[in-house]
Amino acid sequence: MHEHSAPLRARLHYLQLGSSDPERLARFYAQVFGMSVQQRAGDWMCHGPDKCLVFSLEEPNSLLRVGYAAADEAVLHGLRVRARASLAEPTSVDSHLFKPGAIAFHDPDGNLVAYGVPTPSAPALPSIDTPKARLQHVVVGSTDVGRMVRFYTTVVGLRESDEVRDGEGGMRTCFMRSDDEHHSFAVFHTPRNRLDHHCYELPDWNAIRDWGDRLATERVPIKWGPGRHGPGNNLFVFFHDPDGNWVELSAELEVVSGERPVGVWRHEERTLNSWGRGLLRS
């Protein structure tokens, strides 16, 4: 295997979202997910076990930055090699969440995706009454899924797990992975480029029940689910945050071996939810 084609080893580390009221959004996530909240350099940051969110006074529902934790410095070296081979120009990242040497790319839709080795920090203490939930994947909508997939597989080094194609063979969705979990990033075909949702992985099916009770206590209604996705085979529920962003809770996401062929699914509701209604993006 050539150096520039070595598989990426990284997991979603943090997200930065825009909001017209970032403090309100931060306090919502802090309350629901049992995270600490603080203001830092004009932004609001929530931090908890296996999750970190940053909220900035920017356009609501905008995805400002995606941060992935690289397994080690060798991963960053591989990213630089792939970038040079693809004539892409990564930029340096100045973030207290990463050690020096982190890099970032603007993807074809303008999303800023950063990779770095996380800075050591004191472990975030879990809230006693908050079930476990790990920040796990983010999904965007794009008018050109194929172009996005080419960028993320060629320049970044993600691997395809599953595609969703319509009757004419057009790609409607692609799920891509950065480690052995089915997807840490995905792209849906949508009428405009946008954030679609972000997701937290739960320990098991029973945790879906526990989180349903947790959301009920916080008076946050479930908007979709429970159900089961086809690609990834994971159980899920969705809810809205105060800005109307989609938030997913997932359990038992498929673990994929490196040799598994890319799956192809039909563009239909059953693919999105084998148990019932599916929310087609287009």
SSE layout:
Blueprint: E1 10-19, H1 22-33, E2 36-40, E3 43-48, E4 51-57, E5 63-70, H2 73-85, E6 91-92, E7 103-106, E8 112-116, E9 134-142, H3 145-156, E10 159-165, E11 171-177, E12 185-189, E13 194-202, H4 205-217, E14 222-228, E15 235-240, E16 246-251, E17 263-266, H5 269-272
Parallel strand pairs: 1-4, 5-8, 9-12, 10-17, 13-16
Antiparallel strand pairs: 1-5, 2-3, 3-4, 6-7, 7-8, 9-13, 10-11, 11-12, 14-15, 15-16
Q: What's the number of extended β-strand segments? A: 17
| Helix percent band | 10-25%
Distance between the termini: 38 Å
The stretches of 5 or more residues where confidence is low (pLDDT under 50) are: 1-5
Q: What is the string of SSEs from the N terminus onward? A: EHEEEEHEEEEHEEEEHEEEEH
Rg on CA atoms, Å: 18 Å
Mean pLDDT: 93
- What is the CATH domain class of the largest domain? Alpha Beta
CATH architecture of the largest domain: Roll
Cα shape: globular
What name does CATH use for the topology of the largest domain?
2,3-Dihydroxybiphenyl 1,2-Dioxygenase, domain 1
Hey, roughly how much beta strand do the residues contain? 35-45%
Count of DSSP-assigned helices = 5
The biggest beta sheet reads:
9 strands, mixed
Given helix and strand content, the structural type is alpha/beta
**Quaternary structure:** single chain
Strand arrangement, major sheet: 14-15-16-13-9-12-11-10-17
Number of domains: 2
- CATH homologous superfamily title of the largest domain: 2,3-Dihydroxybiphenyl 1,2-Dioxygenase, domain 1
